[in-house]
């Protein structure tokens, strides 16, 4: 998409800084009239606001915006500068200016999300009185009580979340963050959702020698999958798109999962949350925060806003990276994955899905259909810790997830999983056993740490040496223990 | 010329005016080279790069690449009509490898095709015939094997051996200092457009258009007057575009000359990171002799700098390390030696600070070690060693410190940072918190301003006044985001007392102002501002003569104010005066030239006065360190920087903040990592981590030292700003050391960068037990 933007319509405000979705100079806003969240909340009456999300155009294939709105930095300026642009210009927020358009886009996206959140909350309040969706925990009523103004307020944490996918090498960010505070909230002046009502994603798009299939039902998808077992299965493309942007990947046949209704669903039952494989991490983030705040914190560090708005849970699992952040948390939570093919569905524990480095149980006639996560139970403590060189938008050196369930102080069950420690995300069974039956005391934690050390033989690379990975993985057991006992255990919390 | 007396009032200089391109930056309307409309027939070029660190290059087979549709050709060393040379200082540094490849990413050939993707894919299809040779990858191994690109340099003062022999305490250590990738957001790019009669116009993202012009001429085998280099703006430079752009511009120009078609060459991020240089990583072996008070009696430092495969700018980089090893401290007996180690890694180059940061982090590690070994307050150890009355004011390289502001900046920053209160609070925290330790540190900087090489300290500017009173400004300085253009425009607007928007800022172009120095060494506004000041002042004095004649008054009576020219209560507009001057056949154009006074340097004895003046600053940083994972976070930084009387305090503030964060990145999260075969594996933002917005200290108090005009006669008594505050980022590293030292009081064994892994190793060492 970036190549097209710059050479086709010659919208050169959008820049290439890295072509791997990591610097944000290529950011654009993608407007989607079919938000899963709205659907899940039953708010999609086809006439609502278009939801805008920043995305990395350098790793997006053109087919991915079929039926969606695209706004570039040039489009934000009408007669006047957009409030974010004006605040940035007045605040010394640009020096060399090369990252600036991407930063403007990310902050305009934040301003729009906040605006929509404010409007949505106001609408929900007036429609349902004080009543809110059931099953929400204590956090939301508090927000509701203080009304849309607070909900729509831009705080520094939001700004950093919005900027996590944008690098600036000149300013030191202070004037950018300040401009974001000053700019406030503004909706994107784009097409209304009604304008999209009649635009259905095309079944196939053919261009430049490649065919982009967009099945809309699971049945259609499974038929295609059987017909074209060699076709690329495209979720959000945050991994595949990097190869595309480096021109070393030929996409002859692509099957996009983005419009498969069943894969876009978020379902909630009494004891489970289930996410279709094509649900994005940004959508998961807002669904899971109340149940597993620690998982939400991890997801917030998962790539960037741009990456999370593209990347999907199915893609994260299917790509089977040993350093993906989703699997350790999901395995520790006891997630189950659903695989579907024309011959039927099968379910398995996520840890059994991964066979070896980048090898999985997925057959070439199958797709990942959904992932289901048990809801928290009484006495459960879950934490997931990501260790990386940089807090935001980095890949884990080690990611460790811990879940215990206690009854009357005693650990009844434990699940511990790590990423970055082996060729696949893996559980540490002996480390789990070291906790079960104990009172979760220091001795138990030391035994757990020792079992972790004995369990893994990690690799050395630029993210960390084997020694470091091993030491940190073991130390995370102590962090978990102190964390559960109420200590402040992370420097970011200071 | 007296810069203070000539100006009636300061109405534009000294104001915090926004960057001239700010409104276009935010709208995506500021054009970089890749945004320029492409001429019909434009080719795109990509490099064929060595996949191995060291090998004999027997040749290559480009037939598969040439068979691809749209590929225009492949060219290498043998195709260069002139000299295959791109060295900024020395001869023999080739653009295309000849016979040997000596680092991964070494340029072997250039492929051109109808579009970028085809060129890039074609380059990958060129089959290389390389016989692998054993590489030298480690600095210390290079030193052992006497593998150097240049002879060693040495700054010697007094008798260091004697001082160390008689000192009450002698301490020693080794510090490993990591390199740094510039990570300008805009990668290297050039667009070469052939003209008639051998002419070549090269748009290059360069800090040094003159060097691009000369090397392109040399490569093409034409005179310099056939080549013009232009640059409107860069998407960041930081020194990475000082000498390196000749590689890209040279290749683009070669293709353009060979094909007669315009050629654009833009590097993919990975190619940019493996084919062009970075900040030099160093190993510093030091030995210091001190008295009971921690006062330095003698300091012996041996630096091993990673030059990489070629000298490039390593010589002057080492000179600046040696002339900044004193930082702010009087060292009566000194021996600082710098070895330029030749390794099979990409040739390192200029990077903001230019060797200064490596010298300053070394002496700060020495000071920190002295304080902890002798159980003294590090700030007191610093103070007893400051240049001044109690110590001395002669640097080891023979320049007297005449403008000492160390006490002012230190006292001010300690007070604004509430040092005493916070020191006690943090010590209290550490006494009760085994898990997350906090640390606090203060450091000063004294940074020498001028190119070490005296001849580079000159600049030219071109000013035209048009008949409508509008002004055209051109100078040899380049805009890379640092706000140079607006500062120099302010100087010109100030001279004529016109609105800033009457001064048109224009692209740097070798055809307008020739024989320029790189925009580097923080000297951009000092040199170009002064050259523009001189040009504008010369025009103004001629115009004043015309005005005096018209009003029939003495010239002294003529006053320029708010776009008008006054004589008592009569006045005319500036434009009217311009028309009048033209009618009188008075020249309304001037080329100004400035050469920095007072400076001299003897490269043989390594003595002289290399710096016109010093810039001072100080910072206090507070960090938190997780003793289980080694993760760190800077919680607060207080920064105070001396900028003299600033030309533009808003721009300067941006420079200070940006430099501090870049310096913090260098000593914390930014790590270059080569594998055992000598391949760089940190080749993009997914693997090489520069600071993000959340890494900026949540309390970040940056101030400019108030009302402190430069003692020397610089443009409006301002001071340079580009580089000095980068080194204040070292305070974050010192604070991490302080946090680690709180564990058992031992001297922290911490190298730079302090990645979580390096910190955890130092924490384990401090705990006295390395558990694996």
Write the layout of secondary structure elements.
The complex is a heterodimer of chains A (494) and B (772).
Chain A: H1 2-7, E1 27-32, H2 36-40, E2 51-56, E3 69-71, H3 73-76, H4 83-90, H5 100-128, H6 139-151, H7 156-163, H8 174-183, E4 204-207, E5 210-213, H9 218-227, E6 232-234, H10 240-245, E7 253-256, E8 266-268, E9 272-276, H11 281-288, H12 293-300, H13 305-310, H14 313-318, H15 326-332, E10 336-341, E11 344-349, H16 350-353, E12 354-356, E13 359-360, E14 367-374, E15 380-387, E16 398-407, E17 410-419, E18 426-427, H17 429-433, H18 442-455, H19 466-484
Helix pairs in contact in A: 4-5, 4-8, 5-6, 5-7, 11-12, 18-19
Chain B: H1 22-27, E1 43-49, E2 55-61, H2 63-67, E3 71-76, E4 100-101, E5 107-113, H3 116-125, E6 127-132, H4 139-144, E7 148-157, H5 160-166, E8 169-177, E9 189-194, E10 200-204, H6 209-220, E11 227-231, H7 245-259, E12 263-266, H8 269-275, E13 282-290, E14 296-308, H9 314-322, E15 334-342, H10 356-373, H11 378-385, H12 406-416, H13 419-432, E16 436-449, E17 458-465, E18 471-475, H14 484-496, E19 503-505, E20 508-509, H15 524-551, E21 558-561, E22 564-567, E23 570-573, H16 574-583, E24 589-595, E25 600-602, E26 607-609, E27 613-626, E28 632-641, H17 649-667, E29 699-704, H18 730-744, H19 756-767
Helix pairs in contact in B: 6-7, 9-10, 10-11, 14-15, 15-16, 17-18, 18-19
Family (chain B): Belongs to the xanthine dehydrogenase family.
Keywords (chain B): 2Fe-2S, Iron, Iron-sulfur, Metal-binding, Molybdenum, Oxidoreductase
Organism (chain B): Phyllobacterium endophyticum
